Amino acid sequence: MRIALLGFSIECNRFAPPATQRDFDTRCWVMGQEVVTDARAASPKALGEMPGFVADMDAAGPWEPHGILLAMAEPNGPVEHAAFTRMMAIWQDGLEALRGRVDGVYCVLHGAGLTTELDDPEGALQALVREVLGPDMPLVCSYDLHGNVSDAMVRDCDAFIGYRTNPHLDMRERGAESAQILRRLLTGTKAHRALRRLPIVAPTVSLLTAQGPYAEVIDLGQAWAAEDARILNVSVMGGFAYGDTPFNGMAVVVTATEQNAAEALADRLALAAWERRDRFVAKLTPLEEAVRRARQSAVPLAFADVADNPGGGGRGNTMFILEAFHAAGIAECLVGIIHDPLLAEEAHRLGRGARFTARFNRPQGTLSADDAFSHPFAAEAEVVALSDGRVTGRRGIYGGTAMTLGPTAALRLGGITVVVVSIRAQCADPAFFEHLGLDIGAARAVVVKSRGHFRGGFDEFFGHDQIVEVDAPGLTSPILTRFAWTKLQRPMLPIDPETRWVLPPRG
Ligand SMILES: [Zn+2]
Questions:
Q1: 285-302: pLDDT as tens digits
Q2: Is the pLDDT of residue 267 over 80?
Q3: Residue 367 pLDDT > 70
Q4: 36 belongs to a structural domain
Q5: What is the DSSP letter of 309?
Q6: N or C: which end of the chain has fewer CB within 10 A?
Q7: 251 and 289, same domain (yes or no)
Q8: Which tens digits make up the pLDDT trace of 176-212?
Q9: What is the mean pLDDT of residues 482-488?
Q10: How many Å lie between the centroid of ligand 1 and the Cα of residue 498?
C-alpha cells in the first residue's frame, strides 16, 4: 500500500488579522518524509491525526508512506492568499510526482480555513487531489468538528471523518479510523456520502461533548451507526461561526457503503439536531459577577475568557478580566497566557526579581493594532520566572505535543501572577503555567484565555461546576449578535429567532 500524506489545518476567524507563513512555521510545517518521522516522534509537532494514522498503518503491516506537506497553525485570521498559493504549489508538485506511484491519499484538514481570497481552501485542496490523481483515487479526509462544511468538501473525498470530542481528545483515534477506512477502500469497498446542513451556528460554548445537546446528537449518531453495518462514519460538524462563510451551519455528514443508507441516517440525525435547536445558546457570566465570585467562592474557580480565545482567532491579549480582577484586589490568582512579545522581551531583559511598570499592549510595535479589543493596561509588577517557552503539553488537546511559546515570563501584579508569551496560543494546557514553577493547585482563581480546550487540560483541578465562562468583549465572543456578518446565510439560529427549516426532499 502506497499512501500519499498531506494536510492543511487552521481555523480562521474572518474578523481577526491575517495569518502568515510564519504562523505555520512556528507551529507545524513538515515536508516530505518528515511528515512520517514527525508522526512517529515521541512529541510530534502535528496534532494527533497524522500520528494516529501512521501508527495504525504501521501496526497493520508493511506500507509505503509518501509525505508531501502537512501545514498546521493555531487559529487566526484568514491566511494570506499568497502563502496559501505557495502551499498549493507544493501539494501540486508533490501529487504530480506521485502520479501512478500511490494507491490512496490521506489528507488532514480542519474545515474552517479561509484565505484572504477564498472561503473554502480545504475544498480547493481536495479538488486539487482529485484533479491530479483522478476521481477514482481513494481519498480519506479528516476534519475538526469546528469545520464549516462546503458541498465541495463532501463531494471531493471518499470518506469524511470529523472529530467527536470537544474539548478535542480523539484526534489520534480519528487518524486511526481514517487509516482503517482507507484500507477498506483499497480492498474494493465503495463509499458514498450524504450531507445535511442546518441553519444553526451554535455558539462555541454550546458545543461540548461531555453533556448538552451536541453530545446527545453525536451519541445518537454513533448508536445508530452501530446498528447498520453499511455505515462507515457519522460526523456531526458543529461548525465555527466566526468563519462567516455562505456554508456555515451545523452539518451532518454520513459515509456509507450505500447511498441510501447514508441519506437515511443523515436525515434522521439532522432532525434530531434540529429538535434541540433552542439549546444551542450561550449562557455567560457578566464580568462584575465573575469578580464577585472570584472574591467570594469557597472553592477554587477557573474563569474562561471565552471571547478572547486564541483557539478561535482571538489575539490572547485583551485586558478586561485582568484589569477588573486587579482593580478588585483578587489574590492567589493565575492569569494566562497573555500574548505580548514586547513585554516578555522586556521582562527577559530586566531579569528575574526585577520590579517595573508592566505595560501590556503598549502602543508601539504591531500588537496594539491587532484589533479593537486589545487596549493598553499598566500595573506595577515583579518578574518572578522566565523561560524560553519550549513546552511539551501535558494533558488534553496539546498532550504530548511539542509547543513553543517563545520567550515567556511570569509577572506578579499584586496577588495576580500573569504568564506572558511571545507566540500566541490558547491556554489549554497546565504545562503553560507549571513549566514556570507556578502551582495551579494552590491558586484560588485561574483565568484562562481559552474557550473550552482548557477543560481537557485543567480537569484535574476544576470540575464542570468550578468553571465560569465570562462575558467580556472580544473577537470570539459567543454572543453572535455582536458581529457584523458578511457571508453568513440568514436567517440563522440563534441570531434570528424566526429561522425555520424542513428536511429537504430526497431526489
Ligand atoms: Zn476545533
A1: 999 999 999 999 999 999
A2: yes
A3: no
A4: yes
A5: -
A6: C
A7: no
A8: 999 999 999 999 999 999 999 999 999 988 999 999 9
A9: 96
A10: 28
- Asked whether residue 369 carries a pLDDT value surpassing 70, the answer given is no
Residue 146 C-alpha to ligand 1 middle, in angstroms?
5
Tell me, in angstroms, the distance from the centre of ligand 1 to residue 114's CA. 15
Q: How far is the CA of 111 from the centre of ligand 1 (A)?
A: 9
b/e sequence 458-474, b meaning 16+ C-beta within 10 Å: bbeebeeeebbbbbbeb
Q: Which domain holds residue 72?
A: 2-279
Please state whether 479 falls in left (phi above 0), alpha (psi between -120 and 50) or beta.
beta
Cell triple for 264: 437515511
Residue 448, pLDDT > 80, answer yes
Domain count for the chain, please give it: 2
User: Distance from the CA of 404 to the center of ligand 1, in angstroms?
Assistant: 20
Distance 224 CA to ligand 1 centre (A): 24
Give me ligand 1 centre to Cα 200, in Å.
17
Tell me, in angstroms, the distance from the centre of ligand 1 to residue 323's CA: 29
How remote is the CA of residue 100 from the centroid of ligand 1, in Å?
Answer: 35
**Cβ-Cβ contacts under 8 Å for 41 (sequence gap 6 or more):** none
Distance (Å, whole) CA 410 – CA 382: 8
The answer to whether residues 271 and 312 belong to one domain is: no
Task: Work out the average pLDDT over 421-445.
Answer: 97
Compute the distance from residue 237 Cα to the ligand 1 centre, in Å. 10
Span of 29-33, 331-335, 352-356, 453-457 with lowest mean pLDDT: 453-457
Asked if 272 contacts 220 with a C-beta cutoff of 8 angstroms, the reply is yes
